[in-house]
Amino acid sequence: MTAPPTLPETDGAARGRAGLWRAFRRNRPALAGLVFFCAFLVLAVIGAWATAGRQPLLDPARVRLEERLRPPLSRARDGASPPLLGIYLLGTDELGRDLFARMLEGAWVSLTVGFIAVGISVAVGILAGGIAGYYGRRPIRLRHAAAAGALAAGAILGWTGHLLPGLLLLGASLLGCLRMRRRRRSAPIGLLDRPLIDVDAFVMRIVDILLCFPSFFLILTVVALLPPSMVTIMAVIGLTSWEGTARFVRAEFLSLREREFVEAARALGVGDPGILFRHMLPNALGPVLVSATLGVASAILTESGLSFLGFGVPPPHATWGNILADGRRFLFDAPWLTLAPGVAILLVVLAFNLFGEGLRDLVNPQAREGR
Amino acid sequence: MGTRRILIGLPLAVSALLLQSVFWVPTYEEQARGNPARLEEFIQASIGDAAVLNPILSSDAASAEIEQLVFEGLLDRDEHLRLRGKLAESWSVREEAFFHVPAGQGGQANEAVRVAALLRERRARPEGLPPAVQAAVANIEEIAIEPPRRETREITDASGQPLRLHLSVPPRIRLLLARVDPELFAHLEAVLGEGYFLRFRPEEHLEAERPLPEEEKRRIAGEALPPVEHNPVIEFRLRPGLTFHDGRPLTAEDVRFTWQAVMDPRNLSPRASDFEPVKEVRLPDPLTAVVVYKRLHAPALASWTLGILPRHLLDETALRAEAIASGKDPAAFGIRQSRFNRRPVGCGPFAFREWKSDRHIRLERFAGYFEGPPEYRRFSFRVIPDLLTQEMEFYAGTIDAYAVQPHQVARLAGDPRFQHFSGTSFAYTYIGYNLRRPPFDDPRVRRALGLAVPVDRIIEAVLYGQAERTSGPFPRQTPFYNPEVEPLPHDPEAARRLLEEAGWRPGPEGLLEKDGRRLRFTLITNSGNDVRKSILTIVQDAWKRLGVEVRTDLVEWAVFIRERIHRLDFDAVVLGWSMGVEPDLHPIWHSSQTGPHQLNFIGYGHPEADALITRIREEYDPERQIALCRKLHARIAADQPVTFLYAGRWTAVLDRRIVIRERRGDEIRHRPIEPTATGNYRYHFNRWVKLAERPVFAVE
Amino acid sequence: MTEFLIRSLRRKLFTLFLVTVVSFLIIHLAPGEPAQVDPLNPKFTPEMVERFRRAFHLDRPLPVQYVLFYRDLFTGRSVSWKDNQPVLEKIGERFLNSLPLFAVGTLLTWTLAFPLGIHAAVRRGGFFDRGTAFFAYVLISLPGFFFAYLLILLVVNTLAVPVLGMQTYGFENAPALHRLNDRLWHLLLPALLGSATGIAVLSRYVRSQMLEVIHQDYVRTARAKGLPEETVLYKHALRNALLPFLTMFGLILPGLVGGSVIIESIFSWPGLGRMAYEAILARDYPVILTLNFIAAVLVLLGTLLSDLLYAAADPRIRLA
Q1: Residue of B496, B493, B490, B503 lying closest to B451 (CA atoms)
Q2: pLDDT digits (tens, 9 = 90+) for C67-97
Q3: What pTM was estimated for this model as a whole?
Q4: Rounded-to-integer distance, Cα B540 and Cα B523, Å
Q5: A278 with A270: CB under 8 angstroms?
Q6: Chain B residues near residue C238 by CB distance under 8 angstroms
Q7: Distance between CA A271 and CA A253 in Å, rounded?
Q8: Backbone angles phi, psi at B623, to 5 degrees
Q9: C 40-99 residues with CB below 8 A of A?
Q10: Which residues of chain C does A309 touch, with a Cβ-Cβ cutoff of 8 Å?
Q11: Spatial contact of B368 and B246, defined as CB atoms under 8 Å apart
């Protein structure tokens, strides 16, 4: 199996910060993306602040039955619980809830979903890619597999309610692991030390398996089968989208491993974690950042797609995806319920994409050379 | 150099080809463009596909809709929901009643002769008896004595072991009644003496192959030789000359076969509970089916609205041949496995043509339909899972009818292109409380919670006025609904007072407390239903204002049913029941049905309600049944085990070009579609037709 | 070469096995009943539910269910829980429906993207480049279903013509020319929607690949030889930039299953994507698992195909 074309190696640290910024500023769409992204961030934070608490400034859950399906910019008729300034900035939905307040709340939730999902994906991707790239050729031996198997079995037993046998098995396997470490230098028992597969091949095999599932179909299946919750959705999106990150972190590490500064660090006696996190990771961070930015965009899109199919973040959380999905029933009677979240998703995702592409141009010096 | 030209030219050419096609497609106003047959076809949209097109197997609404057109029952319901003959030209209901005589002086044979003579005499000279008893005796048409006999039976005992019984059945009196009389034996006691029927001891006539405990023996004997027995008998006389769509005649054999198919355990028919009380179906001649019941079962008659299956396609030989042809095990091959369910043959107005899963089902009119073929040449059932998509298809003229949503009603009703109809549905929505859990075991709390729910506002705001308040378990348009029971008013003040009476007083932060415990619970419903979701929000808001701490949760359907409803693990739920015309409330409201996996999951039980539910099941007289139902309605409403919210209103929108065609001899006239008294606008569907131009009718 | 093929196939078969195990486990994460059992229907008794469970092996231990299921799948005996139809037959029918959509979408994507990307690369930084770049990002960022609804709304409101499904309903008896055009019309919107994002992504990719080769020596040489610009770009430059696209081309195959869930749902297009969605909704496990299996096979076939193409196109790559 061949690896896909990876991005050329990054050398971002070599360039001056000021130079980078200047280069970035020249990329107008990317700059616009950044500005919009910052504005969106501020808005989301303000939104989270303004819509939370017992007596929020803007209450997204307040039902005003007399005010349902009011168009944008209409004045509140009900004096009892008026919205901010007495105006429904973006109109109201079928229960008379203030769409503006819901959009603000949704901004925060959408952002959380995007960031946490991508956080998970990047963390898993770096870990898997890093291990594969750095430890590459080391074999996984039968005893490792046995220990991992016992650990997993113990955890599953404990999880499914057989607490005692689960804990026993867990304890036993942990003990086994410790003893294994201690006896590393002593004469190995032949069978248990049989190498099964090397680390790199193992990680790439997992990636292969993951790639065999069409990603949206997989996400949809898992989300549909599990009880709906925001955590599930973030975790599922995160756990199904890390293979790209893993692949280029691996490629990066494979080449970095042979570089002089790593050799030097190793010669100086720096431990594996030190080399990995202090010396190698920062050098691979550029493309990771790019893919993370683009990842947030696609996570927000994925969440809205799931919401559209009825498997999104469940109420009471408002997200742009489920506002849109709920609102489309009223396409003829209240088009603003579809347009506002649709346009908002478009703008934010666009901002992330433009910003991410700008970043990519930055960390990919070749792309700028042709000028 | 072509690469570039190909890369640009090819997609542009393809796009151009695709774009020009718009001029060939029919529009709403010109639905017949390129396709004149469109006017002869009725296209119905549906959210979901049918599951199985067999009336004895299906349990979903989509399948039922098709089956109604393809199959025909012995009976159906007329404009006023009364039963009327369909395949059956006429029918009559009688009863055979049996009782064993106790061992009197001179043995049971003599006692039987004595009792028979006594009854005959009292029938001839009823003077001096109370009027009800007189009527009961006059109802007896025939009195006969069945001779004693011996019988051996295999049963399974309480521990599941097989057990052989030897019965020496004593002589039995057989009474033939002109009409069903559930109180016959109570009345006969006035003639034969108080407690007469209890004097018969079944255990004296039974010998088991191994000794049984006294208690057990009495129970088994009571089941094997019941002292009294009601056997209602329905006699159907079929129309002559009926044929199935494949041209084969429909006879009483098919009626009996349909019953056997329902009861065949291989078929897992969901209708089995309706037909389990049938004892036998006798066929005195090819056009007469006599259905004998084991016991009183008032829903019996209405169950024969079930579509009749063709025996020649589904009997043992046919199934065997099909199993062998398709390489399957004939022993495990039942009707459920048959291809018939994908291409049914019935005798209804439309014959089945084609079924493409999740796309459509097509029916063609049946020229040999006994009421004359329908006007529409074709009926199509389109599966469109998305409501908005349905609406758009309707505007494009490619469907004729769809489920109009409440918020669309006002807009569509104002459109001059359409005619619209509406009526109350047979389903109602309610908030159910888990009566096993405090605080719902206190009727005052339930009533208070009900009083606090702004139902009128829910109807107004969530359903856009497209619903009616309901106060009890029966559909509003049936006579069983008790119009004298008023729905709960919206009165938060009264609710507050009731709660205080029940001991719930506002504590700090205004939340209600009793003995240091807060009034708090979770209100759940299934996800994917927008109306219920909105109700959840409104009810939560209303109860919060009372000081009740309500959490809400939407649970995915399978989990909702399995983990919550079936395990009885919930506080309060928003749900709906879809009712039939029959007033049988046993599965939903009887106290014997409160276990896990049963339908009375709220745990309602009241001795009076139980008694009424059982009586309604056994009452054959429509007037008395109505009276009982109204009493039951009042009983349940008084207990408020659930908060009855509303019965939805459905609205149907049709193109104005669709009209009713009337043929009188050679003359053809059109008139606009009018709904029946119960709101059924499709009653005359077989005479509908679509015209090319919108007709103008004189204002009447 | 054969050795490589055998080794690659063996690896892929092993991966496929792991995929079947993983997907089977995923499916059993969730609670659920066979779709035919409607627990709230008064006519359904618990015994009946139990009988259904037995009929579908749901009472057997998981490994046994696994073996039974895949045995049924390979022998073509597994049936949908929803309507008792053979799964493979259902999928075959849907596959044929998805095919034209997929073909037109792919055709539009894999033709239009190249001239657009190349032109943008040549006019780097110019108006065309910026314009297409921005437009491409808008297309990538637009939620597909939002776009679809806007388009449908526009067409239905202005023209009042049917746009959903594969053809105007009830049009089978119309003259052939009408029918053909009707089918084409129904293909138009979903195919455009399906290819819009593809064109946007691919054209950006073409552009960046072209930028890498456009300043290479051989391109300069070709220009110096006085060849027409078109020949230089489309023959010399493009051929060398083409290599990475082989990988992508191999990977469009699985898009047949998972790529069009939303579009097919909106247009009620009876294809594989909508089938997958419906199967998930109904928890029709045999269909979900079979689709998953087919998707995995397609992915593995795609990678194999692209490996082979790669080897054929680039002699530097040894199949080792």
Answers
A1: B490
A2: 888 888 888 777 777 777 788 888 888 889 8
A3: 0.70
A4: 8
A5: yes
A6: 3
A7: 16
A8: -60, -50
A9: none
A10: 261-262, 265, 277
A11: no
